[in-house]
Amino acid sequence: MEQSYPGRDPLLQYRAILAPMEGVMSPWFIRTCGRLGLADHWITPFFSVTGGAVPSKRIIRKRLAPYLETGIPITAQVLGKDPLNVVKCAVHLVQTGSVAGINLNFACPSTTVTGNGAGSAMLDRLDLVETIIAEVRKALPETVPLSVKLRSGTRIPAVEDVIKAAVNGGAETIIFHYRTKDEMYFPVENGWERIRKAVSVSEGIPIIGNGDIRSVEDAERMISETGCQGVALARAFLGNPVLLHRINGKQDLRDIDLAEEMRKENAPESTIRAIGRLIRLQSSAETCP
Ligand SMILES: Cc1cc2nc3c(=O)[nH]c(=O)nc-3n(C[C@H](O)[C@H](O)[C@H](O)COP(=O)(O)O)c2cc1C
Known about the structure:
CATH class: Alpha Beta
Order of helices and strands: EHEHEHEHHEHEHEHEHHHH
Bound molecules: flavin mononucleotide
């Protein structure tokens, strides 16, 4: 399957990008990745506007500071359900002059977020998803690329509807985690089939596939078997921080122990243990796309 739309989003320059991880992307994690050059592009964890308040530019600058210090380009992610607030937050982010793009989160399955009607719960309100994307697109300078992060539905997969809402809203790149909201992080059997479907209905808007990439072979197969333009990965990076570079074709990389490297940045042991728990959780889950 061929992509007719090359895309201008810097996220599309790479076969593999690092997906955002709230709670993991601490200043110690960010500094470690920056010092070792482990990522080519950041997508920040979400700036939430679900509580009604929009983060001020001062707060935004503070949160972006560790990313900026790495010199790695930043796409900032916004999560919310109210178009006005999402627009305001996206505009604040862009006005800091620090971000290379905006990403909208309609994917988070955490009950704290979905209980508020945001994240992947928004996939039950696709008209609103479309409106938010369109309003943000309208408010941003044309030079700022707009991407979205989606799951495949809420209870049952509704890939076509979800992708159409993003395309009609004007998203220029779609990061697509194949699970539904209710599937959280459980194994699903036809995940890649859903990505293939997403590619086939996206009218040439590039799809970045996401979900359980653990090796160079997984990434290559996902791309070739689904037609997605690239992959985003999150959890596997924690146990194998050079995986992105390996997928992106860099050779002769030495293995890196993230915990050891984070200790050099004086990361608290509790932070390192939390990452260790995520690594163990992912490697114990049997997933079969
Ligand atoms: C601890 C943790 C925090 C996450 N935080 C975010 C987030 O802030 N924004 C987002 O879009 N996705 C978030 N995700 C989802 C990941 O970006 C990714 O979509 C998901 O983990 C599936 O990819 P993987 O199988 O490669 O881990 C998070 C995932 C984890 C494990």
